[in-house]
Amino acid sequence: MKILLTGATGAIGKAVTASLVRHGHEVTGLVRNAAKGASLTAQGAQFAAGDVLDREQVAAIVGELRPDAIVHEATALASNVPLTRFDELFALTNRLRTEGTDNLLAAARQAAVPKMVIQSYCGWPFAKFGDPVAPETHPFDAALPWRQRDTSYALQYSEAAVMEAPLEGVALRYGGFYGPGTSLCANGSMIRDLRRRRLPIIGKGTGWWSFIHVADAAAATLAALQPGISGIFNIVDDEPAQVCEWLPYLARLAAAPAPLHVPRLVGTALAGSTVVSMMTAARAGSNAKARRELGWQPAHASWRQGFAESLAA
Question: Could you tell me the pTM of the whole model?
Answer without folding.
Answer: 0.96
